[in-house]
Write a structure and sequence with these properties.
mainly alpha; globular
């Protein structure tokens, strides 16, 4: 496999792939722009406190999802399957979300320090490690557009 030098133009893509890429980017752009007024609306209309009925189900369900993502990442890694990249990115994203929700929902309570310590010492470093490893795998695979 030959390495594409940094800054070199990417090889031309087939028209179908270029069209799919453009449509995907257009969709993501519309969604991002649409999320701005929605976020502003929520900032002004959501109550600062809210009582929920399924608190345990929500948190246990999220942790089960995180567990499945971690397990999938481990299994795919042990099998040296290329889908480990997707699983690792998903696991990293879930870890960041877990840290955010743990800390933000504990604000104003004594548990905020435990949540912050767990986020800073476990969840965020593990997420960063996974993303760092994914970038390393992309570089190793010499994919066009991968950071070098």
């Amino acid at each position: 496999m030959t390495e594409i030098p940094t800054g070199a133009p990417s090889p031309p893509l087939p028209e179908r792939i270029r069209r799919q890429r453009r449509h995907t980017l257009e969709l993501l752009t519309v969604c991002a722009v649409g999320l701005v007024p929605w976020t502003i609306l929520l900032a002004f209309t959501l109550p600062s406190g809210y009582t929920v009925r399924q608190w345990r189900t929500t948190w246990v369900g999220f942790d089960v999802l995180l567990l499945l993502a971690m397990a999938a990442t481990a299994v795919l890694g042990w099998r040296r399957h290329r889908a480990v990249v997707v699983a690792a990115v998903a696991t990293g994203a879930l870890l960041v979300c877990d840290a955010w929700f743990d800390v933000s929902l504990a604000l104003g309570t004594p548990q905020v320090w435990w949540s912050a310590a767990l986020a800073v010492c476990v969840e965020l470093p593990l997420a960063g490690f996974l993303i760092h490893r994914v970038l390393g795998m992309l570089r190793l695979a010499q994919w066009p557009g991968a950071p070098r």
